[in-house]
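Protocol step 4 of 6: record predicted structures for both targets in the notebook before any analysis. Target 1:
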Amino acid sequence: MNRLHMSVMILGFAVMVGMLVYPPWVGQGADGQSEPMGYGFLWSPPSHNVEVPALESKWININLSETRKANSVDFGRLLLQEAIAFAVLFGFNRMLNSRSKQA
């Protein structure tokens, strides 16, 4: 295994670990459905401020702000990201192996 091959492998695994540390999150919306909340570190999930109408009439409009935090990691999206990163890393590995055998 040459220096380029090792560098690509280390970089690929570092990207995959980075995806585990900074994963996609989902939260529960007002209607009970899960909605994507974006990406955030494992130790600090993302949160969004949502305007919630408290009182609405012809003359008065009072809105309250509610902070919604992400409930859980979006494991489906995270698994897809990790699988794509692994496929790309595997492809580079195969390409570099075939190139070193030809030389």
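Target 2:
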Amino acid sequence: MGQRSIIEPFRIKSVEPIRMTTREERERFLEHAGYNPFLLRADDVLIDLLTDSGTAAMSAEQWASIMRGDESYAGARSFYRLRGVVEEIFGFRYVLPTHQGRAAERILFSTMCKPGDVVPNNTHFDTTRANIEFLGARAVDLPIPQGRRPSEIHPFKGNMDVDALERLIVEVGAEHVPLVMLTVTNNSGGGQPVSMANIRDVRAICGRHRIPLYIDACRFAENCWFIREREDGYGSKTPREIARELFSLADGCTMSAKKDGLVNIGGFLASNDETLVRQESRLLILTEGFPTYGGLAGRDLEAMATGFEEVLQEDYLAYRIASTAYLGRRLTEIGVPIVQPPGGHAIYVDAAAMLSHLPARLFPGQALVAQLYLEGGIRAVEIGTVMFGSTDTETGEERAAEMELVRLAIPRRVYTQSHIDYVCEVVGDVFAQRDRIAGLRMVWQAPPLRHFTARFESVCAPSSPNDLSND
């Protein structure tokens, strides 16, 4: 008997209608939004793959937890429940709730970084990099070489290049490296996992140089599943056991619970450093709220605590990873170039390979995003030169990112296989007409994080090979 289909390990208890739109309507909506999916109205989107952050469907138990929320300003029992769950799973003694992950990042970096510092990461995501650079520090990406090659197969393409880390620390001096971060899974690098062996190697380097190691933990459960499936010695361990080992190697973590917390809002900052936490608490009070609620309602704390317990359930993780792999397999079968192997939370289309007639200055990733919406009402996000490039203020030339990707991020417990099949059909139709897709010109931007609000206009594709330079 062959392998049976992976089914959703839940029943659907309530539904939300989505509106079908015509191509003519989408043309109008897209032009009005300046070809930027962030500026589209959600009601005008059919399948929303813009992000997996805060877009999950909460469970019946999470909704029940909301009713148990204690809304006391200080010392609410909901905080102590969350703290207990975080201590059990993540192992850290001190927990500061925040309204989402970027608030935790801002507090951490504001406390630890100063101008001229350097913060290494396997790959920083957008808000992480922006929070570091806002303080005058430098965010440095150190992925392994395989992580920069989309089509190459490697079980842990999210790993950090430990030799490059050692060289960087020696070059700038350990006193200028306030912390090292590892993002699990590596979102900007294609949602790829980090191995336990790599985390141990990074921990050893940090230990020798007396530098704290922090984990960007927003997709920790998915990373733990990949460790169990792909790394020797972990096949018999539970995701919870792997998570506890992973975080035992770190000095702290930032968490956006809007991902692997299965909630629509929330996060936390955790560590074992009491002195540091006192400093962070003062900043938390100034901008977020009292340290036992951190800008959240008690019901949000309860939903987070329940979500952290549910996300480590093996039936859920098997379904989650298999459904993403299904999308990746279907797209690969029709020839669409993607980051291989498929990651945990998203499929990343290699827009540079798919739209090879468009140079980076015509933003092939953004052009592909626009075409997906135009063709089928699918909203995705560019992770390439729009997000990670920059415009030279003196020459006006565009500095290209190393990869031009389009992320199809799958919300947790939201879409069924028929929705994903529809996505495959639309991407296939776009792939079939890829040579006719025009590029885009950026007509307005506002640093930092320009991708959220930038506006574009359509331009004709280059007609001469001499126009295809990425310079």
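Step 5 preliminary note on target 2. The longest helix spans residues 314-333. Residues 462-471 have pLDDT under 50 and may be disordered.
Proceed to step 6 after PI sign-off.
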